[in-house]
Amino acid sequence: MSQPLKVHTMAEYLAKGEVPEILFWVGCSGSFDDRAKKITKAIAKILTKAEIKFAVLGAEESCTGDPAKRAGNEFLFQMQAMQNIQVLNGYEVKKIVTGCPHCFNTLKNEYPELGGNYEVIHHTQLIQELINTNKLTISDGEAFKGKKITFHDPCYLGRANDVYDAPREVIEKLDAELVEMKRCRTKGLCCGAGGAQMFKEAEKGNKEINVERTEDVIETKANIVATGCPFCNTMMTDGIKLAEKEGSVEVLDVAELIAKAADL
Amino acid sequence: MISSIIFSILLIGGFAWFGINIKRIAANINIGRDLDRSDNKMERLRLMTLVALGQKKMFKKPVPALLHTFIYVAFLMTQIELIEIIIDGFTGGHRFFYPMAGDFYTIAISIIEILSVLALVATFAFLARRNLLKIPRFRMDEMTGWPKLDGNIILYMEFLLVIFIFTMNGTDEALHLRGESHAAGEGGFGFAMSSWYGPAIFGGMETGTLHILERVGWWGHIIMVLTFMNYLPYSKHFHIFLAFPNVFYANLKPKGRLTNMESVTNEVKLMFDPNADPYAAAPPTDPNVVPQAFGAKDVNDLTWMNLLNAYTCTECGRCTEQCPANQTGKLLSPRKIMMDTRDRLEEYATNKRKNGKDADDGKALLGDYITEEELWACTSCNACVEACPVNIDPLAIIVDLRRYLVMEQSKVPTELTGMFSNIENNGAPWQFAQADRLKWAEED
């Protein structure tokens, strides 16, 4: 049953004199992109359902600096990082979950050296943990019965941080068949958005990378391509549209799959 | 006596020349900036054993991996026979270990002979693969001219090495059967291959001819070994040595982590320090020290690890084959990034040696070798890093060159300038107000 979404900020928790268990780092896509906002809501619903005391930074959150760093603008990256670390340390944040592998990678790997030390997990890892500890149960609804789902590895989750199993284990909890693309896990093909490509036109070539990747998806005959990254989601959605397969292939985040299966 | 002297001169000369080249390459690598990789020695040793010695990552492609293993193991095992050749060469003796090692000798040489046959098969397979089969990674733009020839020369040399060793053992077997060999004992040697093909091919020849052929095989082999050794430092094939230190010193952190530039951190910290005096005089600097650029324009701005990577690359092209940009027809090829870095380093160092430390040849890695279009095609997906059998990191160089473009030259694709200013002004890469970041929670 759908329940009204209650999302509290760190500032609100502080005012109440309480400390949340975990900070949900929403990210820029998750905050502003209409498609990605649905993923954000799915994650928030899952956290609420599992009765996790979570908070967001709201207006105090700012870009982690990932696209700036990958584009070579180290100054801008470190300005963003220092600013965010001041906020995070100010609230004495210990644990962070995020729906964006780019934020995940930056917070986890690049912030510690600059003074930001947190336990950072990706939302698929958190969902996996919630299911394994029975904090979240997937109702035996038949939302995905008979469906084929394939998982597109986000580069910044997979190769960059060796997280390959968490999203797959979560998908396997569903009453559906997980099928792999010919290029998966360590050999997974990029969606084309990483390294700040999301914010520019691709260089001259003979094909768009997301079109190449969409062909891998179509080859599996999957009904759903699951992602764990808002950028990948955009690229795959565009690719499916270009291939005129919107009627037969859906692009959904792992969080959305679980929210749907748990009837949230 | 004369032959011992000629041999000594050849051998000492060969090793000396090799030593000079090793010193040259070590000096070139040291042109790179400092980087501390002295941590986690045990983990590094483990990885080196697994990835360099054990060739773990090669087995992602099982058939080439198996053929490569034949050549690799044959190369390692042949060193045993080489020790004997060197002893015989100095002393003027013949098969020094034969009388004392007995069965062990027969087994060792037999293993070498069997491996040499397998290596020969692999050599032919690799020649066919490079020249007859249409495998895309061997036919890209950067693989024409010298790199193509280089790949073939190595295989020709391997072929000659094996042929000489087989001539030597085959003729010696035929001689030994006649009691005419200079080795101890009588009857055949009983080696796995030559005991069979020796009499079959060479059995009908005159003893005098056999003695000449045996010497041709012996001298041919040692001369090829020395030639091969001294060819390596001029070739992509130097990976047979550098793969080991390259894997040992490779990055152990998650691949997604890019380095935080310390020079930038200092400046940013100053900006955030409320006690910093904005009008304070700049701290005194050493006039002899050239301030380090932000990012890399040329090879001397890269780290020694990047440069070691460049010398280690054997141009197999597994990186480029996996590169999403390359697969979709963009200009970027991670292999070319490594080849360009090595070629520029050679050019850079040669110029400094010839024309003095301050000599500038007016060229740079960025621009003259690697273009902006290549750099901006990268998605930083790490497929190239993952694919490399010896843990080379082309992405590190790409990012450092991008840094120079952006921070030193302000050469940024227009859309990215927009992205930068959005982050600066609104804390997001798009034009949305930071105050609206929680609006999603209110929307239905």
Q: Based on the structure, what is the oligomeric state of the protein chains?
A: heterodimer
Radius of gyration of chain B: 28 Å
Number of helices of chain A: 11
Provide the domain count of chain B. Answer: 2
Main beta sheet strand tally, sense and closure of chain B: none
Structural Rg of chain A: 18 Å
Mean pLDDT across residues of chain A:
96
Distance between the ends of chain B: 96 Å
Estimate the global geometry of chain B from the Cα principal axes.
elongated
Proportion in helices of chain A: 40-55%
Structural topology:
The complex is a heterodimer of chains A (264) and B (444).
Chain A: E1 8-9, H1 10-16, E2 22-25, H2 27-32, H3 34-49, E3 54-56, H4 66-70, H5 74-90, E4 95-98, H6 101-110, E5 119-122, H7 123-132, E6 148-151, H8 165-172, E7 177-179, H9 209-219, E8 224-227, H10 230-242, E9 250-253, H11 254-261
Parallel strand pairs in A: 1-3, 2-3, 2-4, 4-5, 6-7, 6-8, 8-9
Helix pairs in contact in A: 3-11, 7-8, 9-10
Chain B: H1 2-29, H2 41-53, H3 62-91, H4 98-131, H5 146-177, H6 194-202, H7 207-231, H8 239-248, H9 262-272, H10 304-312, H11 318-322, H12 324-327, H13 334-355, H14 365-368, H15 372-376, H16 383-387, H17 394-408, H18 414-426
Helix pairs in contact in B: 1-3, 1-7, 2-8, 3-4, 4-5, 5-6, 5-7, 8-10, 10-13, 13-17
